[in-house]
Amino acid sequence: MARRNQRRQRPQMARYPSIEGPHFDVIDEPCIAFHKYDGSNLQFKWTQKDGWCQFGTRKRTIDTENPLFGVAISIFMSKYADQILACFRKYKEYRNAKSLVAFCEFFGEHTFSGLHRDRESRELKLFDILIPDHGFVLPRNFQQHFGHLDIAEVIYDGPLSKEFMNDVHHGHFPIKEGVVAKGVTTTQRRKGKTEQDTWMVKIKTKTWLDELAGRAGDSPDLKQELEDNLKQQASFLGAENAT
Fold first, then answer.
1. Mean residue pLDDT across the chain
2. Would you say 184 and 113 are in contact if contact means Cβ atoms under 8 Å apart?
3. pLDDT tens digit sequence for 160-172
4. Among 74, 93, 94, 168, which has the highest number of CB atoms less than 10 A from its own CB?
C-alpha cells in the first residue's frame, strides 16, 4: 500500500530546447526563418486518452485560474485546439500520434524579454508542435500543414547565408526581437532508412540587444538574460566584427 504522506509527483513538462545562435555547421544550409516573438513560451498537451489535458510555462503547469496565463488557455482552446487535431487527422504523417505538445508564444504590444505590462491585451501565436518519441514537426511540414492557422510568420525561405543573418541583425526586416531559422538534418540508418531531425538557430536584432542592455541596469534577471544572449550570438557577432 502506498504511503499516505508520500509526495505527489509533479506533472512532467515537455522541455522546449534552448536555441543557440548561428553556428558554422549550418551556414548556407536550406532553412525557413520564422518570426521570433518576444513573450512567454507556453505549452499545451493533448493525449488520445485525455484530450487537451495539461498546460504550462517552461517550468510549471498552469490552469485557467492563473492570473497571468489563464486567459491563454481560453485563447488556445478557441483558436487552435480543434484546428490542430483536424490537421492531425488530415495528414498521414500524424495519424498514429498518441499525443502532441503545441508550443505558443504569449505576448502583448509592449512585452519585453518575457516581461508583460499590466492590463495590456495579449495574443497567442503557434510556433511549433512536438510529437513525443518522434520529434518536432519538420519546418516545411509545419509551414504547409498548419500555415492556414495563425502561426509564426515566415520571414525568409532560403539558405542560411551570412547576408541574411546580417540583414536580420541590422533591422532590415519588420521584426523586433529576431528570427528562429529551422532546417533539417538527415541521418542514414540501417536497411536504407533515413531519419530526419530539425535543427534551430536564432538571430537577434541589434536594436533588441541594445534595448536589453539599456534595461538591464540593476536587474539581475535582465543582466543574466543579456549575458546569455550575447554568448548565444557570439560566433555570429564575432564573425561580423571581423569583416
1. 91
2. no
3. 999 999 999 999 9
4. 168
Number of folded domains that form the chain: 2
Structural domain ending residue among the three candidates 151, 177, 210 = 151
Return d(Cα 114, Cα 112) in angstroms, integer.
5
Is 118 within the bounds of a domain?
yes
Residues of the domain holding 202: 19-37+153-243
**Which tens digits make up the pLDDT trace of 185-230?**
998 877 778 889 999 999 999 999 999 999 998 889 999 999 999 9
Place of cell 541574411: 164
* Rounded alpha-carbon distances, angstroms, from residue 66 to 52, 60, 121, 124: 17, 11, 16, 16
Same domain (yes/no): 44, 147: yes
Domain end, chosen from 119, 151, 183, is at: 151
Report the distance separating Cα 112 and Cα 116, nearest Å: 7
User: Among all chains, which residue has been given the C-alpha cell 536550406?
Assistant: 30
∠ CA 65-71-73, nearest 5°, is 90
pTM: 0.91
Query: Do 43 and 147 fall within a single domain?
Result: yes
DSSP state of 83: H
Q: Which residues of the chain have pLDDT under 50?
A: 1-8
d(CA 138, CA 176): 25
Report the distance separating Cα 142 and Cα 29, nearest Å: 18
d(CA 135, CA 197): 7
CA 106 to chain centre: 11
Q: 211 with 163, same domain?
A: yes
Tell me: do 169 and 78 sit in the same domain.
no
